[in-house]
Amino acid sequence: MPTTYNNPVYPYRRPPELDSGEVRHCPVVIVGAGPSGLAAAIDLARQGIESVVLDDNNTVSVGSRALCFAKRTLEIVDRLGCVEPMLEKGVTWQHGRVFFQEREVYDFNLLPEDGHRIPAFINLQQYYFEEYLVNRIHEFPAQIDLRWEQKVVEVDAKPERTAITVSTRDGDYRLTCDYLLVADGANSRIRDMLGLESRGQVFQDRFLIADVVMKADFPTERWFWFDPPFHPNQSVLLHKEPDNVWRIDFQLGWDADPEEEKKEENIRPRVQAMLGEEVEFELEWASVYTFRCRKMDRFIHHGVIFMGDAAHQVSPFGARGANGALQGVDNLVWKLARVLKGQAPPALVDTYDTERQHGAAENILNSTRATDFITPKSRVSRLFRDVTLELAEHYPFARSLVNSGRLSLPCRYDGSPLNGADSEGAPRELRPGSPAKDAPVRRDGEAAWLLNQLGDRFVLLLDGRMDETSAAPLAAELDALLARQPDLDPVIIGPAPDALAALPRSRVLEDSEGLVGERYGLTAGGGYLLRPDQHVAARWHAVTAADVDAALARALGAHLAATATTTQGGRHATA
């Protein structure tokens, strides 16, 4: 098969431990240089934590694989400093169409409002994403030790620390670490080594992915067919990728022979029937897959923390795999960094399991429902689906029942033990546990974006459009708080009185189009405490330093330290 992409080959380097004979201790070791492992290393480096990344391969992934990157994922990658090549290379889209047999039954728009820096979705082959992450890692040579062709063959996980044995072409060596982050995929060897399980449902159906190179005039939209005439009684999905590549997913049925279906002579008739005999194309990559919706009961075992597909799997419908995985990294790293620096109790890391179990369950629920709708397994469920599609063409209520894959949305950590105060009447979509929303602002007279002012540290987002009399006592309280809390930065919506603008580490922004106030429901003196992962920790109609201090302590897990039954054992600050 021809290819439009040449996989980079990264060099193996002899590990220094083979020559020194020493067992090196590391704060963090990461197993797996896929999206989760690479992103975690970058995020740790930005927050002052060194890591060693081990991968048994010497290149990025083969084939398009994870393709659809959602707005929240791109915002996370923007915080990590490598979203620009993704936006430049990726195919931007926000519009989709759903077809039943020969008819379009409805369409949808995923981001109908203006005033956002990041689009609703881009399509970008996973190998590009991984390459951009590797390039970004090369900018942290002192913080990230990325080692290719290094295979973990033994793990000894104890409450106080974890020891691993790593195999290379030159021999084996050992490392110890405070935390071992496992991102070695759905068939995780490390999960098996530790005798742990990932449990859930296996779906008895098979799907063919065909990446097709062609010049076509299809719009850059998501098109999904139920029971189309060119592939009757099954479903088909069409997406555009960069490099004139198109992703086509064909439902095959459980009885299909995977090896036969992957042969080009069997793929070509299916694609030709869909596109028309006159359309010329080349097949770049193909794969036949069956999928599971499953997760581990706990993502943390002593100091071993599972991420991405090693922790949880979903069907591909709704683009929840890689997007959910990156939200998990975003959730974990700020907690890990503060525990390693001695700024928070080890119990804070346990809330990664609490919050991301919620996120994984949400993704599995949506993914399972989509799969059940797309692949009905009984006459009654098939009848329900087809009637729903018939009604959707004319009645809006039925469109909410159509499920061709509920597309990935950012997770809200409702009920999290880290959530603090909430203000009555404030916008529900920004309640504690929710990710912050972007909006255009001006900083120092230049156009900017709100989310680019947040992240990596705690932020007090304060509406500073107050009179001097009200601002002066609040500024004095906050000044004292900021002296005690070096991990907290004020971001002030102005124009603000001099007393607020002069606060340490403060940034004053102009709400240039009024969208910050509108989206956040802010009025003078009101504010939000935002976590380092840009999620809301607490919010108030009238900010006080005491309230912010209490919410910050809660977000750092201070209330968990005395009572938590933590899996972190005797771990302590190492940085």
Features:
575 residues; alpha+beta; FAD/NAD(P)-binding domain; Glutaredoxin; 8-stranded mixed β-sheet; 7-stranded mixed β-sheet; 29% helix
Structural class by sheet pairing and helices: alpha+beta
Class of the domain at 17-89 and 122-198 and 296-367, according to the CATH hierarchy? Alpha Beta
Q: What's the end-to-end separation, in Å?
A: 49 Å
> What name goes with the CATH superfamily of the domain at 17-89 and 122-198 and 296-367?
FAD/NAD(P)-binding domain
Report the CATH topology name of the domain at 17-89 and 122-198 and 296-367: FAD/NAD(P)-binding domain
**What is the tally of beta strands?**
28
The largest sheet is: 8 strands, mixed
Shape descriptor: globular
- Portion in helices: 25-40%
The overall average pLDDT, rounded, is 93
Query: Which strand-content bin applies to the residues?
Result: 25-35%
Q: What is the level-2 CATH architecture name of the domain at 17-89 and 122-198 and 296-367?
A: 3-Layer(bba) Sandwich
The low-pLDDT segments are: 565-570
User: What is the overall number of helices?
Assistant: 16
Rg over alpha carbons: 25 Å
What does this structure look like?
This protein is an alpha+beta fold and about 575 residues long. Among the domains are: about 15-90 and about 120-200 and about 295-365, FAD/NAD(P)-binding domain (3-Layer(bba) Sandwich), CATH 3.50.50; about 430-555, Glutaredoxin. The chain has 16 helices and 28 strands. Strands 1, 2, 8, 9, 10, 11, 19 and 20 form an eight-stranded mixed β-sheet that branches. It has a seven-stranded mixed β-sheet with strand order 6-5-14-15-16-13-17, with helices on both faces. A hairpin with a 3-residue loop joins strand 15 (about 235-240) and strand 16 (about 245-250). The relative contact order is 0.13.
